[in-house]
């Protein structure tokens, strides 16, 4: 089945809205992929910021339109910064997303991820190992990425097939997808529509980029170029999406 009414058309319109509104996305992002994520957001048309200083993070979160919390290189300072920033997002009703990177490697990180999830993010996104260990996340849109992305909210599941295997060979494509979801949530309050738009944009840009690439190295640059050049009509022409209830 393809085509729940208007979802793909809405995704295409959201891409144009991100370009026009240029949302500010504050990223508490792991140190491995900060540049890749900032460049990807900028290519899309959003405005990234990245500080994790406990002195400044509340002011940055207050200024931002959406927040990404990524646990990839967690330490005491980052835990404190995350608590401060998420408190601002909650009280100011800003959309925020948790990416529980490597929560399957460490009991302490898993406990912190669960604490964050219980405090009410809009979205939780991880790869299969991370999402399988986390389990329930009541009231949160759960997204498991991979060859097919699965978005689950209550009893509704959306599957997005777009993407390319080169994505799994470039560190940070998952982290970037979380940041792109935040950018789309900044311009669309319906988080399922926002996340669908972001993952279609990312997956379709990756397919276009792969046609011009000879491996993961050239793909990385071509992916950024394709995100910058992506048009709403590319989303409408190339979306591979299905929906299920129950
Ligand atoms: N085999 C594949 N075919 C198509 N798309 C893929 C494939 N593997 C991953 N992707 C896409 O790559 C992106 C990253 O997904 P993945 O599940 O690999 O995240 P991740 O492990 O958290 O990545 P990272 O930690 O490096 O940021 C998603 O947008 C997903 O759709
Ligand atoms: C490889 C790696 N290690 C910590 S974060 C990160 C990149 C995103 O998963
Ligand atoms: Mg990851």
From TrEMBL:
<keyword id="KW-0808">Transferase</keyword>
<keyword id="KW-0418">Kinase</keyword>
<protein>
    <submittedName>
        <fullName>Hydroxyethylthiazole kinase</fullName>
        <ecNumber>2.7.1.50</ecNumber>
    </submittedName>
</protein>
């Amino acid at each position: 089945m393809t085509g729940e009414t208007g979802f793909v058309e809405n995704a295409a319109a959201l891409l144009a809205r991100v370009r026009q509104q240029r949302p500010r996305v504050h990223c508490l992002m792991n140190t491995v992929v900060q540049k890749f994520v900032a460049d990807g957001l900028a290519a899309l048309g959003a405005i990234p910021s990245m500080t994790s200083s406990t002195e400044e993070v509340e002011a940055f979160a207050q200024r931002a339109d959406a927040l990404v919390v990524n646990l990839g290189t967690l330490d005491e300072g980052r835990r404190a910064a995350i608590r401060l920033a998420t408190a601002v997002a909650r009280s100011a009703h800003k959309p925020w997303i948790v990416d529980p990177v490597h929560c399957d490697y460490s009991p302490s990180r898993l406990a912190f991820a669960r604490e964050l999830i219980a405090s009410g993010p809009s979205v939780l996104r991880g790869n299969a190992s991370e999402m399988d260990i986390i389990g329930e996340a009541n009231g949160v849109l759960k997204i498991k990425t991979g060859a097919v992305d699965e978005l689950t909210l209550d009893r509704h599941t959306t599957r997005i097939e777009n993407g390319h295997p080169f994505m799994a060979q470039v560190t940070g494509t998952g982290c970037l997808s979380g940041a792109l979801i935040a950018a789309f949530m900044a311009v669309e309050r319906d988080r399922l529509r926002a996340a669908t738009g972001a993952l279609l944009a990312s997956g379709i840009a990756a397919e276009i980029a792969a046609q011009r690439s000879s491996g993961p190295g050239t793909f990385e640059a071509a992916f950024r170029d394709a995100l910058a050049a992506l048009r709403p009509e590319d989303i409408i022409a190339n979306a591979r999406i299905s929906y299920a209830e129950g």
